[in-house]
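Interim report, section 4.2 (structural modelling).
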Amino acid sequence: MRALSTLYAALLYGFIFLPVAVLVLFSFQGTLFPIPPFNGPSLRWYDAVLSDARLTSGLFNSILVAVITSAIATLLGFLSAWGFTRFHLPASALLRGLITLPLTVSYLIIGMGLLIFFNWIGLPKSLIAAGIGHVVINLPLCFAIIYSQMGEHQANIERAARDLGAGELQVLTLITAPMLWPALFASFFLSMTFSWDEFVIAFLLTRFDTTLPVEIWNLLRAGLNPKTNAVGALVFGVSIILAIVFELVAFRKRPA
Amino acid sequence: MSVSTNTRVGWASVTPAVLWTLVFFAVPFMAMAVASLYPKGGDGLSLANYTQFFANPAYWRALTNSLEVTAIVTVVSVLLAYPFAWILAFVVPERWQRLALMLAVLPFWTSYVVRSYSWLLVLAEKGVINTTLVNAGLLAEPVQLANTRGAAVIGFVHFFVMLLTLTIYANLKQLSPNYAKAAADLGASPFQSFIHVILPLTLPGIMVGAFLTFVLAIGDYITPQILGGNNELLMPQLIMMQIGRRGDFASASALSIILMAVVTVAYLACAKWLKIERA
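Predicted structure of the assembly:
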């Protein structure tokens, strides 16, 4: 039984790691094609990536869109989660349902809808258009995370602050936000990773200035190419570093 | 503080999120629904975009292809992930579990586009598998692996095995060990205890994971486009083709709405089934 388990786990780890291992290995390929035999290691393709203006500007745009849209999504999610838990609003369940609705719709369809809508109102394809779409897909997520962390004991501390003369804005910024810091961080971080990796909305809603996944997609037209391997390996490396940071910050044991 | 100012603060805090969702999600969706009723080159309101879907076998084929591929992907992913999650939860020593799990989902962190591309490296005509098999003398000629339905399925399964391993692992860990102990005390073999006790208890969790797999897979354009190629179109590929090659937004809108209807039906079927399970 134990031997069988080990064998099965080894096979699945093999399946899971095979493509990534091949990707990274052949990013160091010395010749023109990322196919066997391997004849590296060489850094020429990393050089090629870093001196490719389209890729570096795509990288910059991706970071810009991810940071700004995640900040907006986290802020809107936080405000609405707070409003729905602390105040009795009519039609609250309906409105909460509306905010979480985009979670059930595929990115392709959200992108399609925005494409037609922006066409009608005359908003040109741009990073701003794609950014609006990224807030649409991340807001429900941020709302759900923060809403689930809003507890009664925080409400009591807020009440205490109000009794001591704090205004609503002071309560929000000085009391509620710091108490909910882990949820806010998790929301912002998850939004960043989704926006960073999002392809289809950016593909539909941007034209000249675009994000890294779309630039990588454009590279794929050239077929198998070690340059694509190199940029893929770089993205992988950056994502793993972010994941480790997230693991360290979010799951660090805090004093109770 | 009076009740009215209170409510005003409440409204002020929820309005931005509600407005954003209304303006950039609900309204665009309605715009899409309206657009689907005005066929390109037609003269006004018409259901032609919907009727053509049922009349044109190529369109209908895209939907059945999508449903077949998604069903295969969902079943295979669950079957592969469940034993893996089981091993991680019960065979791997407790203190190594977190690391084992993190390793199991590590490739999750490559970008989605890059992950599909890296399978292309493995499956291509001169890729790793073909080269290895030909060099080992097991194959005389490279066989076509990329640009097939099988390649798309492999790419999907790779992604969803990771996702399902995470969800099923979480499910298994929250089961109290007392269930298995009680079953053993009552004379059940480990196999019987698994079939009659553990599996039914984890079934709702599996259904949630399977539904998530279904929804994400059926709406995905990247994997079938990169790995499956254009020999056999799935729904998202057909939709993108209407926009890209033909500039036919009306038809693309109608197809998107049909795709969404299919997902909604699946959701309703699934929700019902889940409720029965819990009762």
